[in-house]
Specification:
About 25% of the residues lie in helices and about 30% in strands.
């Protein structure tokens, strides 16, 4: 039996500690380039989508 996560935020990637919180794993980065790179790698690993919230925060979501 396979268990699959769907419609969930799997991870958050950001440089801005003050803008995020919650239960999903949060990855803090030091530059915008690193933020985009880590978000891309996580999305590949999870086979999920990246959503840029436009405020320096990326979320990785399994649809």
């Amino acid at each position: 039996m396979k268990v699959r996560a769907a419609g969930q935020i799997l991870a958050v990637v950001t440089m801005h500690r003050e803008k995020v919180g919650g239960q999903a794993p949060i990855f803090y980065t030091e530059s915008q380039e690193e933020t985009a790179q880590i978000a891309t790698y996580l999305a590949r690993v999870f086979m999920a989508a990246i959503h840029d919230l436009g405020n320096g925060v990326y979320i990785i979501v399994k649809h």
